[in-house]
Design goal:
It contains 13 helices and 14 strands. β5 and β6 form a beta hairpin. α5 packs parallel to α13, α7 packs parallel to α8 and α12 runs parallel beside α13. It starts with 11 loop residues before the first strand and ends in a 5-residue tail after the last helix.
């Protein structure tokens, strides 16, 4: 079972609506933040309101709300007395402003470095499974997996996401030994033929270890280091990046985005305590995992909140059930345009990496959206 989220009495900064337009973000953009938890929030609200009355700083119970121009908020925080500036709420607020305004840290993958903020990176899916939900599984054939990987790279994939266990709803788990038997031969062949990074998609430490020994450049864990207690140590020792995806067994929430972010922060804490620095962690909100279709769309609407975690954001909506559900139960093979719409939205709202099956078509979507959403207007 997943590791439970530990309650920690530290301030957490959350983004509130309405969100600013990320394509024109500047010091003049309006931003609304809320600090939850922490001490002396009422005193902090008074101090900020006295310095910049227009900020609309106010406290209620164990939270502080702060609204105004980004530049004005930053100036107000810097003007506080040293003892307040050193306090956890102000430190977290300053981190939040830096993370929201700037690109995610660069990610080193083998001999490559992905630099975010200029364009979206494409992670092409190769499933060495007989039961992939998307209908593109290649069974246990390493040759078929390598052929599909070659196709995806020729279409513009920046990396390959190689999985050997289906995670579709109602999937049948496979043993670590069976997963290794499927994954390693395909990975070895792909690694021999292609120079792009390869992510090994697994939640088992034993499988991750075998994949890394066979040349994988990163691990994509659909349980965010929270299911197998040995996974974080395996990743830390290999000094490779890891994707921490949000997941749950049941889609029951009181505060969807609040709980999602709390559980991702717990994954980040597991990584940190194992020796994985934040700059080697990618976060994924887990669209379709532990979430019904309406909940998945709600997460996508609020995707830019994840920028405050300070990590690259990966989004995987490709061919998923939330698209079929909205489009009158559209079959998996006819969900390309729905996928394209969710990818365009995700790029505009802060996604750094998108995980897709139809690389050639989605590459065009991403290139156009990068031009529209990642370039300052002239």
């Amino acid at each position: 079972m997943p590791v439970p989220v530990e309650q920690r009495p530290v301030p957490v900064v959350r983004l509130r609506t309405p969100y600013p337009d990320l394509s024109t973000l500047s010091g003049e953009s309006e931003l609304s933040l809320r600090v939850e938890g922490g001490a002396k929030l009422e005193e902090l609200a008074v101090a900020l309101a006295e310095f910049r009355p227009e900020l609309g700083a106010g406290s209620h119970s164990l939270s502080l709300s702060l609204s105004g121009r980004i530049g004005a908020i930053s100036e107000a925080l810097s003007s506080l007395p040293p003892e307040q500036r050193a306090g956890p709420p102000v430190v977290e607020l300053q981190k939040a402003l830096e993370r929201f305004r700037g690109p995610a840290p660069a990610l080193r993958l083998g001999h490559q470095v992905w630099r975010f903020g200029e364009r979206t990176y494409l992670l092409g899916v190769v499933n060495v499974t007989p039961d992939s939900f998307s209908g593109d599984g290649v069974g246990s054939s390493p040759e078929a997996a390598a052929e599909r990987a070659r196709l995806l790279v020729s279409e513009g994939a920046d990396a390959i996401d190689l999985g050997a266990e289906s995670t579709r709803p109602g999937y049948r788990p496979v043993s670590a030994a069976d997963e290794i038997d499927r994954l390693v031969p395909a990975l070895t062949l792909i690694r021999r033929e292609l120079s792009v990074p390869v992510f090994a998609d697994t939640s088992k430490a034993e499988v991750a270890r075998a994949a890394l020994d066979s040349g994988a450049d990163a691990i994509n864990d659909v349980w965010g280091l929270r299911r197998d207690p040995e996974m974080a140590g395996v990743v830390a020792r290999a000094r490779v990046p890891v994707v921490c995806m949000h997941n749950r067994t049941e889609p029951q929430y009181r505060d969807l985005m609040g709980e999602l972010q709390a559980e991702l922060r717990f994954s980040l804490r597991i990584a940190e305590e194992a020796g994985i620095p934040r700059e080697r962690v990618v976060v994924d909100p887990g669209i379709g995992f532990g979430k019904g279709p309406q909940q998945s769309y709600a997460v996508l609407r609020r995707l830019c909140e994840l920028r405050l975690l300070g990590c690259p954001v990966l989004v995987g909506t490709s061919r998923k059930s939330l698209i079929g559900w909205l489009l009158d139960e559209r079959p998996v093979g006819t969900r390309l345009l729905g996928t394209a719409a969710t990818v365009a939205w995700s790029v505009a709202n802060g996604a750094d990496i998108v995980r897709v099956h139809d690389v050639g078509q989605i590459r065009d979507v991403a290139r156009v959206m990068d031009e529209l959403s990642r370039r300052s207007p002239s």
